[in-house]
Amino acid sequence: MVPGAVQISQLIVFNSVKHQRHRDVNEPLVSSASIGSRHSRCRETPLPLYLGLLIHATTRKKSLVDRFADLGLSVSYDRVLSVSSEIASAACSVYHAKEAVVPSTLHTGVFTVGAVDNIDHNPSSTTAHSSFHGTGISLMQTGDAVNNGTCQPKLPISSVSSGKLSVLLPKSYSNVLPAVGFAKEPSIPKGSEHFTGKQLSLPAALERQHSWLNTVQLAVDETCSEEWLSW
Hints:
The chain is α+β, with helices and mostly antiparallel strands. It contains seven helices and four strands. The strands form two sheets. A two-stranded antiparallel sheet has the order 1-4. Strands 2-3 form a two-stranded antiparallel ribbon. Helix 3 packs antiparallel against helix 4. The model is unreliable at 29-34 (pLDDT under 50).
């Protein structure tokens, strides 16, 4: 079957629902979308679910998702939020099992490099409402044709929703310890030993540096020198 026929078939199955109708013949005729329809979870095909998640991830507009849902091309906005919560809850359950926050798209058994950088937005602000300071972490994997790693198991998302969703990160990521500011005059503890000038390495380092400078000066003064110099 061609892809176009598959998509049309999925939309037909998805829209095979019972619509509420007006019984009073004197009332004006309105569309079934404005009256409301209830889609069955057992007839929810991949295409309308994909379109709803795609539109929401791209635009973040509730009205646009609901407009496509009224046309029978997408799931409703509430269903999109429900699926997003189920995915987040499943990901957090995996994080708790591993005791670490690891993206599900990463492969195991392949060389991984991490880059950490600050995220600063309006740092000159004097309030916390308009400024933001955070840390961004990027993970890059260098796989090849021989060793591309192993995919992680799929997220344990149940086909039947239990109605109880808990999106909780591990305590090490959700609980931030308070930071204590340094005093203007910090108290320095007293040392148990006394150091003298003979025990320090500074005189020996200065002597080696002066010896190197003298060698450079002698080599520069001579017209032909076989000494190797480096800076």
